[in-house]
Structure formats: C-alpha cells, structure tokens
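Handout for the seminar on molecular recognition.
Each group receives one record of this type.
Step one: identify the two inputs.
Step two: read the structure output and locate the region that could contact iron/sulfur cluster.
Step three: write two sentences on what you found, then compare them with the reference statements printed after the record.
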Amino acid sequence: MPFDPVYDRVAQVIPPMEWATMQDDVRAIQALKRDRRAVILAHNYQTPEIFHGVADIMGDSLALAREAEKSNADVILVAGVHFMAETAKLMNPTKTVLIPDTRAGCSLAESITPADIALLRAAHPGVPVIAYVNTSAAVKAASDICCTSGNAKRVVESLDVPKVIMLPDEYLAQNIARETEVKIIAWAGHCEVHERFTAAEIRALRQSHPGVVILAHPECPPEVVAEADFSGSTAVMADYVSTNQPPRVALITECSMSDNISLLNPNIEFVRPCNLCPHMKRITLKNIRAALETMQTEVVIDPAHFAPARRAVERMLAVR
Ligand code: SF4
C-alpha cells in the first residue's frame, strides 16, 4: 500500500484490508470539512479511524464543551452521543451543530427527567442540584450547575454548602462522596458500560497480568474503583498514562479508549478488559460523511430550555 500519513497513525490497530474499506470515506470527509468549514469533535470513545482519522478535536465531555465554545468553524459535527451535541449547541448557538445519528443516546441521560428533578427538589428544599453533563438540555435547564467526571469534586465543593443533589449517576456520586465532606444525595442512574465491571474481574486481571496498573473510570461501581490503582475521567486517564508511562496498563472503561491512547503510547502494553458503548458505536465514517453531505441532522434545542441549560454549563466551566 502506498504511504498514507493518516493510515500511519492507526496502522497498529486497523489492518490494511480494513483500512482499504475506509480510505474513500476518510478522504471524502476531509474534503467535505474544507467545503463546509466544518470541524469534527470526537469523544475519547470513538473508534480509531474517526478519532485519529478525521477528528479535529478529541477529548472528554469537558474538553469538547470548552472547544465547542471556542470554535470559529461554521459547522460543528459531534462524533459522540446526543447530549454532547446538545452541549456544543448550547455553548456556540450560532453554529450549525450536526449529529450523524440522532439515536446515539446514553443510559445515564435517559435515566432522568425534569419531573424527577422537581420531585427531588420538593423532597430536599434548598439543596442545589448538580447535573452530570450526561443529561438532556431539559434536565440541565432544571439544574443549578453541571459537572463532568473530570471536575465533579471541584463543582461539589465550589458551591460551599453542606449537602448537594448529584444526578443521575449513582456511582459517580458515591465515588465523589468518598472524597469530600459534602453530603451527596444521589439518583439511581447508571452507565450501561461501566456498571458491568466487577471487583472480582479487576482482582482476576491483577493476578493474570502481574504489574499491571489499573485505571478505573468513576462511573464504575465504588467497589471496582476501590480495586483500581487510580480513578479519573478519560482525559485524566490519558494524561496519567502519557505522563507516567507504566509498562503495562488496563483502562477500565469503554473499549475504544485503549485503542486510541495506545496509538499515542507505543511502548505501553494495554490489557483490554473493555466494554463497548452501543450508543457511541452508532457514529461511523459512513454516517459522518452523509451528515456533512446532507447537513443532517442539525441539533435544535427547545428555546424554553436554552438559557437555563446554558447557564448551568457556564457555571460549571467557570469552576477552576
Ligand atoms: S459510555 Fe456510558 S455514559 Fe458514555 S455515552 Fe455510553 S452509556 Fe452514556
């Protein structure tokens, strides 16, 4: 195969035969991005041909929200799930924000509604509501401030109150509660990818792979996080790996994360006890190409939710 600088970036994880089926879409997407003055924001859980092949900005939810706000492109295509595209629109409302498949949802976002928040507020008068960014714009609008897994503890403590409601991820709330004096009232939402990991699985992994450094996402159950060496958001995990260069590492999170990070850290052995997110995997090269060709589907936010949802995200971004 003639030298292809894009393939060179992903050759370790995509066989040449498979790349041959992707090349045409990659080239078409690069050309469409120029024609449309578009940028592609890709979450860390996107597959390598998207993450390393066509994305302009890669990162966790927090990084993508910040980058969406700064973007001067005409079109922002979000290679991620629907709440991420909504957040991009909230942060940069004059841009056309596209999502290639509107069915790319999230079990956390689907676990709670504004009516649930009204009930929680009635049960806990005066207690502020922190909404994980993995929520709909309507739920963000019903909340006081947002958080991500990367800044949840800072957001909780920034409010300077003895008690908060943190929703919808029960495990994230429980994991943060172990790190702060603030009392946290949780909701029973779970990430269908991270809830499947078990403490027994982590112990077995340690036995079968001596010396492995185990990093767990805080959406995992607390007993899984307790078995890990370190816990953090996908951005924090990536930073930990590139800074510390452990010889052998296991990322207890979605499958594509290890593929993407391994390409940037060729000297590290990645053990891969991963789980796939079916929602993230709805985004493909084919539907990214189609989205840029047809300019569909554009993300629209109910005007009634827009200002309060944006305020909740802005309050989060102001927390350092
Ligand atoms: S990995 Fe979990 S939190 Fe992330 S989009 Fe998938 S279901 Fe939602």
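Reference statements: Residues 8 and 53 are 10 Å apart (CA to CA). The mean pLDDT is 96.
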